[in-house]
Structure formats: C-alpha cells, structure tokens
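Researcher: For the record, we're logging two predictions in this thread. I'll number them. Prediction 1 follows.
Model: Prediction 1, sequence and structure:
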Amino acid sequence: MAKIALILADGFEEIEALGTVDILRRAKADVFIAGLKEGAVSSSRGVRVLPDGLIDSVNADDFDAIVLPGGQPGADNLNADSRVIDLLYSFSEKGKLICAICAAPYILAEKGFLKGKKATCFPSYAEVLGESYIEKKVVEDGNIITSRGPATAPDFAFAIVDRLIDKRITDTLKKAMLYYCGC
C-alpha cells in the first residue's frame, strides 16, 4: 500500500488538499495529513481541518511520497517552515515522489528541486519557475509531479495514483467518480 504524507499549513487551498486526499484514499493509499502545529489547520477560506498528526512524525523512510497543496498564505507558510524544507531534501535524496500543486511548486523552484526539470504551477507563479515552467494541467518529471490549481486537483491526484498504485485503479476511480461524464 502506498503511504503518502500531505502537509497542511494555515491558508491551504481546500480543493487541492482535500480533493487530493479523497482520491488517494479511494485508491486505498495510506494518507497521513500532517499539520505544522497542534490542533486544527485553517484553509484560505476558513475551513478547519484536524490533521492526523504533526509534521515531526513524518520521516521520508516511512513514506513513498510527500504532497504540498497550494493556496495562500498556505504555500508561503510551508516555505517558511524549515521542517518542510528538510523533509523535501530527505524525500529527494531518497528518490521519493515529491508532489506540489498551485502555488506550492514555487517552493520546489526556490529550493533547487526543479533544476533541469519541467514543472507547472498556478499562472501567477510561472515566473518563479522560469525555464522549468510548462503550461499543462499536470507535469511529471522524474520524481516530481506538479499541477496548476484547484480545477486540476483531480488530475494531480490521479497522476499520483498512476505512479504509486496502478493506472487501472485510476481508470476505475474515474468511472466511479463520473470523471468522464458528459452530464
């Protein structure tokens, strides 16, 4: 079973975080939602979520992937926390999957994880990604998966399922969730 750490900071984007968790858990991934502090984490629109535990309990040896949702000031709060950055380096050193959506890919760009790689992000952060930026819903390059924003969250989550679990599971979920529905 794939084990995934999703890191929440105050100001996270709801659809990117919870939509991703929903799809990953439907695919039977073991998703651990880690907060930066004790207690509930507030989204950018005031939705409060109680994480499964603290970021301090996340060790790259125990997980297959780390996921950073976007939203503001959530992405800035993730970027300002040295524990998040240390985890990213640890996941990278071990060749583990690093996934970021919306504003969060700017963190990967600033910390050097996108050197020589292609990625995408929310359009207003494209300049930060520089030569790495591609305007696509989801970009996979090596151990990095990036996506653009709330509307691309399902595609982002399905890309993670494809990589860590099985494309057949993705296809089954897409049908069950009416992803292909022309309603």
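Researcher: Logged. Prediction 2.
Model: Prediction 2, sequence and structure:
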Amino acid sequence: MKTKFSTNMMLKQKLIVIFILLSILPAILTTGLSLYQSKSLVEYEVSSLARQIAKEKVAYIDSFIEKVSAEVDSISKNPDVISRDTAKTMEVLRNVKESDSNTLFVYIGNADKEIFIYPKTELPQGYDPTARPWYKKAEESFGNIVITEPYQDAGTGKMVITVAKAFKLADGKTAVAAADVSLDQIQSNITRTKVGEKGYAALLTENGTIIVHPTKEMILTNIAEKYDFGKTIVNNKSGSLKYRFGGEDKIAGFEQSKLTGWIAIATMPQSDYATKLNKSIVYTLVILAIISVLAVIIGLFLAGNIANPILLGVSYLETLANGDFTGNVAEQFLSRHDEIGRLAEAINKLQANIRPLLSELKTSVETLTKNSEALSAVSQEIAASSNDVAKAIQEVASGASNQAQDLQEIVSLIGNITTSLEKVYNELGHVKENSEETSRLANTGKKELDDLISSISGVREAFEVVVEKLGTLKGSVGQVGEILEIIKGIAEQTNLLALNAAIEAARAGDAGRGFAVVADEIRKLAEQTRVSSEKISALLNDITSETDEVVKTSEEVSAQVNNQLENVENTIKAFDNILESVAAIAPMIKATYTEVDNTVKAKDIVLERVENISAVSEETSASAEEISASAEELAASTQEIAANAQQVLEVAKRIEKQVEQFKV
C-alpha cells in the first residue's frame, strides 16, 4: 500500500490526499469531541433543571408543613388550653381547623387519657391517646414539632400526616396537641408539575416509599427495596442520576426536605431532550461537511500551486532531453525565491551553458556540410559535364524549379502565421479589456468592504451599549430583590402580630371574637404576602440568571463581530494585492499588444520580399536551359576529386544528422 502510494500517484494527487487528510481528520476528531461535549452539556442542563424543580417542591412542602406546625405550636402555647378550660380549648381547636382546609382533625390528648377533638367524632370504647404513635413520638421529642410518616386514611383513602407537639398543662401534666393534615394540596402541586414534555415529579418518604406519584399504582411502593436507582436516591438524599425505568432512559434530580425528611424527585425521559441533542448533531455534521468541501477546494488550490510549477519544470527538462534548447524558462518561475525558483534557475543555467556549445557545433557542422556539398557538387557537375551538358543544365533547371516551389510553400506558411498573429492580436485585445474590468471591479469591491467595516463597527458599538444596559438591569433586579426581602420580613412579623392578636382576642372571649376574625384575616393576608414575595423572588432569580446568560451571549456576539471586522480587513488587504497585481500586469499586456501589432505589420514586408525572390528563382530556372556544355573536358580530371568529395559529404551528413536532434 505504501509503495503504491509513493510510486503510482502523481505529486499533485499526493499533495491533495495529504492536505485533505490533515484538514478533515482534525475536523472529524473535533466534531466527535463536540458531539460528546454537547451530549454531556445537555444532560447536565437537564439534571440541573430537574434538581432545581425538586428543590422548589421541597421548599413548597416545607412552607406547607411550617404553616401547620405553627398552628399546632400556637395550640400548645394557648393559655386557655394550658389552663384546661374545656370550652375555650374546643373553640381554639375549631378556629385552627376552620383556618386551614387541609386540616382534617385537630385534637389534644393528655396524660389523664382524655382527648379533645374537633370536629367531634366517635372514638372506640376505651380509646387511650397516650398509647397512640403520634402521642409517644411527640412525648419523646418534648417541646419540638414531630411529623408522623404519611399513611393512607382508612375512611377517605387520602394520604395523611399527623403534626404533633408535647407540652405541659398548668397542673404539670403532659399533653400533646396534634393535627391530622391531608396531603391533597401537596399531591396536587406535585402531580401538576411538568418536567419537560413527558417528565413528572414525585415524593418519597425518607425510607423510599412513594407518597405522591402521577401513577396511582406506584403510591406506597418502596422503590429503595425494588430498584437500584431508588436505593441510590435514598442513600444520597440529594443530587441527580441517570437510570432506566419502564424500558426508557431517564435523568432525575432529587432533594430531601430537612424538615420532614421526605425526598422530592423530578425526572425527565431521554426522549424529551434527545430532540435538542439531535439538532446539535445535525448542525455539527453540516459544519463538518462544509469543512470537508472547503478542505477539498483548498487542497486542490494549494496542490496546484505547489505541483504545477514542478510539473512544468519536469516538462521543460523532458524538452531539453529531446534536444530542444530553443525555449526559455518562464520569468514567473525565475523570479521566485523558494525551491521552485532555485530549480528554475538551475535549469536556466544548464540551458545557458549547453546552448552556446550546441550552437557552435551546429555552425561548424553546417559549414562542413556546405563545403562538402559544394565540393561534391562541383566535382559532380564537372564529371557530369563530360557526359551530357544538357543533362547538367536540366538538373540546374529542376533545382531552380524546386526552389521556386519551396518559396511558394514559405509564402503559404507565412499566410498561416498571419492568421495566428491576428488571433493572438485579437485575444490580447480581450485580455487588455478584461484586465481593465478586473481593476474596476476590485476598486468597487474594496469600496463596498470599507462600507461593510463601518456597518460592523456600528453593530459592535450597539452591542457594547446593550451589555451596559443589561448590567444596569441586573443591578435594578438586585435592588428589587432586597425590597422583597424587606416585604417578606414585614409579612412574617405581621403574621406573628396577627397570631398574638388572635390569642389576645381569644382571651377576651365573645367580646374579642370580632377582633379575632380581623386578626385572622390579617394573618392570612400576611401569609399570602409572604408566599407572593417568595414567588416574585423566584421570578427575580430567573430574570437575573437569564440576564447573565444574555450578557454572556452578547459578549460572545461582540467577539464574533470583532472577528468579522478582522476578516473584512484581511479581505481588503487581499483586494489591495489584487489591484497592485493588475496595475503591474497592465503595462506588460499593453507592451505585448504593441509588439504583436508591429509583428503583424512586419510580416507583410517579409511576404513581399519572398514573393520577389520566388520570381527571380523562376527566371533563373528559365536561364539555366540556355546554358550549354561548357565543362565536358573537365570530366576526366575531376573523377577522383568527386569520389573523395562524396566521402567527405557522407561523413558531414552523418554528423549533421546527429546535431539536428538539438534545437538552439
């Protein structure tokens, strides 16, 4: 294979193959790396999005639980409850229940095995609250809010949790305030969450049991026990992972609530982000194809620039090897300063050294041949005159006739030369016009490129203004965020004040009931203000992130504009080179045009002279017939001279035949 490549391919083909390989192979490697990086980047973006959604779900859950916890905590601190005022205790429980639609039951159990529950419900005979898991768990974490594992309510089938807190009554005995809370609101929020086109969100307990899932059959399934990816989620608590489920590859982000221990999951199937990745692959392959085509075109151009001068040099050496020393090495190669120029100079010197030797040898051989021919002719004529003077005269006439025919052929050849010269004259006229048109177009192109530079500079200045304005926008968004934090703090403080007001109103009894309602409404408004502030804060964070991305993109576009500006300036330099080349070649074309015009005029004079010579030759042929036998008596004395002259002539012709192979 190596031998075939080295010996069977022309130099130009080798250069093209090598250049294409050196151009396309790096492009292929770069394309492969780019596709791999694109896939990794898309997967990273998807996993980041999924994890962000999981964090948002955890924040929502924590907010929900904190609200219920605050209500239970307020019960444990209510003076009427602590003082064991039954009527007022039931009123407190009723207010808490009616303030939150997600609360199913609110109740208090104490060490005396008493239980106060709202709404009232029938309990089994001998019901002992102190034996219930929620009571024991709260008692073990006395003074702290505890949350039970989610369970499915037997009556409604809903997922429910119990939020409880142990506290001391006025008589020093232990009691536990608790609320059974439906997870319908959390389920609705999570199941309505879309991750991409087909992705979804779910919620697990700390040990991996699903409590919220868009597919009802999956609820209460422990994925940590059934699937490896579930075990990974439970062990790591937060992060992201790739896994396969239901015959489909997926990416999930997950986050654990530090308040409940629950784990929120956001998952997206690979098919959702594969479209974006496939577009990236198509764009990359199109770019690779363009690079390949450009590589072939540039390879052909460069290979031609390198190989063509060498091929011309080889062709010229072959001409010299065949004995033709009449040509000259082109000036365009002699003026080069690279290896090709040195090769052309060496060939030129070789020809210059050999040409004088051949010219001198050829001249000497021609002289010898002429003298030998003259001697032989004289001897033959003298010898022939002894036999037949008429025959000699006839031969002279025949020679004159042949000379006249040769002159007619010369006249015909000059006619052909005339036609060729006229074609050359006309073509040079076209070349002259094309050169002038090229100069005009190059000047026009340079002017348009100057206008393009002005436009690109304007675009660059506009982008700089855009980047500056985006920075100002980002600062303004930050200031709005600070104001929202203040509003959020005010809302939280208002919530606490409303809660205290409700407690004071409760103490006031019926007289303070209207005030309690107002305080409760204020608390609700404060809570809504806090939630709205958090949503606005999240939106501001998104705006800040998108603003940063726009700034980054604007800076990249600005860099591209600068690159375009540099490319256009390089193009203008190329146009300047074209103008210089056209300006340099125009006088040469004009001079050549003038010389050809002079040659066309000179050929008419040559043609006239040849025609005159032809007429004289014809007259000579006629006169030769009148010559009589004047050399018969010389025949005997010149026979020996004729034989010797013939031998010399044969030797001279053999030498002349060898020398005729060389043209100088």
